[in-house]
Amino acid sequence: MSDKNRPAFGSCRCGHVRIEVSAPPVMTAACHCRGCQRMSASAFSLTAMVPMGKFYVAEGDPVKGGIMGPQLDHYFCPDCKTWIFTRITGMDNVVNVRPTMFDEPEWSRPFIETMTSEKLPWAETPALHSFEGFPTPEAFPALLAEFANRR
Ligand SMILES: [Zn+2]
Ligand SMILES: [Zn+2]
């Protein structure tokens, strides 16, 4: 990516919710858990972790959906029901944005993959680090540093 700090724009399937980020993600991921398989209607979900305060809902009024709390809040377009972003309790410094919303999908390539214990047998991603569950909080600083150095 030549210009790391340019804003990026995205929208849901119907276009009623428009999102904007003003900073690149600190991490990208794929999650193979059964919940993500169901919510994404696909083999895995994709995430771009964007710093809180660098993510904006520019238009529309997303509603909560999917599994309702207490640790996760999933936000959807109220009209087309597209899954747009997730907030996780205890990870208050980032927003997990679905990178396939962005007009340019360059942040969709996952750097890590999680919950491979539930992955579909044929599902493969280009992730460099695989976790049967989720990386521990202790593992995160090194992963963030490695991701930052790769861009
Ligand atoms: Zn929509
Ligand atoms: Zn998942």
- Separation of the first and last Cα atoms: 7 Å
Query: What is the name of the CATH architecture?
Result: Alpha-Beta Complex
Taking all Cα atoms into account, the compactness measure Rg is 15 Å
Low-confidence stretches: none
CATH superfamily: glutathione-dependent formaldehyde- activating enzyme (gfa)
Number of domains: 1
**Class in CATH?**
Alpha Beta
- SS element count, helices: 2
Structural class comes to mainly beta
User: How helix-rich are the residues, as a percent range?
Assistant: 10-25%
Give an overview of the whole structure.
The chain is mainly β and 151 residues long. The chain has a single domain, classed as glutathione-dependent formaldehyde- activating enzyme (gfa), CATH 3.90.1590.10. It has two helices and eleven strands. It has helices spanning 34-40, 140-150, and strands at residues 8-11, 18-21, 27-31, 45-51, 55-59, 63-65, 72-76, 83-88, 94-97, 112-114, 129-130. Strands 6-7-8-9-4-3-10-11 form an eight-stranded mixed beta sheet. The protein starts with 7 loop residues before the first strand and ends with a helix. The chain binds zinc ion (ZN) (2 copies). One zinc ion is lined by residues 31, 33, 35-36, 45, 115.
How would you describe this structure in keywords?
three-stranded antiparallel beta sheet, globular, eight-stranded mixed beta sheet, 151 residues, mainly beta
Kindly summarize this structure in a few lines.
The chain is mostly beta strands. Helices cover 12% and strands 32% of the residues. It has helices at 34-40, 140-150, and strands at 8-11, 18-21, 27-31, 45-51, 55-59, 63-65, 72-76, 83-88, 94-97, 112-114, 129-130.
